[in-house]
Specification:
alpha+beta, Rossmann fold, Immunoglobulin-like, 2 domains, three-stranded parallel sheet
Length: 296
């Protein structure tokens, strides 16, 4: 299976989409590169929520491996999302290209790091990793499968979280130029925490609020006016992550001043008056001679 990400992760194909090597290679050849931001935490959460589910082809008895390929430093908290996957027994391999952050790769990857972290200077050099990485992956799967069959404790991955662990009915209200209110219906089994992630849809640094599981609403403030925001509410349990809620809404434009009036004209002065703009702390008044505009 493969997903691409920038600010909005996207599944290219599921684990069950192809059944032969030739089909997978053909799909890779037809893949269109997705440029943009680097929200690695959001991408890892997407993989857990969307790609490692039975209806996407994940088999309960199969080992779960995630290979992260990135060419930049994450713009959100990749470590928290990675730790959630690792706590569920999912092994992460991290491959960095060009401007990838080596420290972040080592933080995200599973132990032992000498087998799970790789870094190359440019994309063509990835070909040099294929042989070694293939051998390492196959060996790790055999080792983990052997532990399971010989009775060693291996954590089952609850890939099918189901409605018991997922909130519903996201409502966005009280939207202003700089704030909005989110509320949702909690799942039957309350989570330990909620991660609320929000960021402008056209790119920007994601922000995150972590709430206690008993809470089912939050006020987002200090937003940018007249901007479309993507919001996600993700329930986090001790050993699972429920399906996240997604929403899109736009903040209102800033209130403008109204009813401009001119009075008290003289040969070198005039008086302006207007109805105040709600929330404004200062006004900037510009004037120039018309029509050609002399000195401002």
């Amino acid at each position: 299976g493969l997903s691409q990400y920038s600010s909005d992760p996207r599944t290219e194909w599921d684990l069950s989409s192809y059944s032969t090597r030739e089909q997978v290679l053909e799909a890779v050849r037809n893949l269109r590169y997705k440029g943009g931001n680097t929200f690695t935490g959001l991408a890892l959460t997407h993989v857990l929520e969307q790609n490692l589910k039975p209806d996407a082809g994940a088999r309960l008895e199969a080992e779960k491996l995630v290979i992260l390929l990135t060419d930049g430093k994450s713009q959100d908290d990749a470590n928290l999302a990675a730790q959630t996957l690792k706590n569920l027994g999912i092994e992460i391999f991290a491959i960095g290209v060009k401007n990838a952050d080596e420290a972040e790769l080592r933080q995200v990857a599973s132990e032992p790091l000498e087998l799970t972290v790789y870094n190359v200077l440019d994309f063509p050099l990835l070909s040099s990793l294929v042989g070694k990485l293939t051998r390492v992956l196959c060996t790790r799967i055999k080792e983990r499968s052997h532990k399971e069959t010989t009775g060693s404790a291996v954590k089952d991955t609850p890939v099918n979280t189901g409605p018991q662990l997922s909130p519903t009915d996201l409502k966005i209200s009280a939207v202003t130029s700089k704030s909005m209110h989110l509320a949702w219906s909690p799942p039957p089994r309350p989570p330990k925490k909620y991660r609320v992630v929000y960021y402008p849809s056209k790119g920007g640094t994601p922000k995150e609020v972590v709430l206690e599981g008993a809470v089912s609403s939050v006020q987002l403030s200090n937003l940018t006016s007249h901007t479309e925001y993507l919001v996600s509410v993700i329930p986090v349990y001790a050993a699972a992550v429920g399906d996240g809620l997604r929403g899109v809404t736009s903040t209102l434009p800033l209130s403008p001043p109204r009813s401009l009036r001119v009075s008290e004209l003289s040969h070198n002065s005039l008086r302006l008056s207007w109805k105040a703009a709600q929330g404004a702390t200062h006004y900037l008044v510009l004037c120039s001679a018309a029509p050609d505009g002399a000195e401002d």
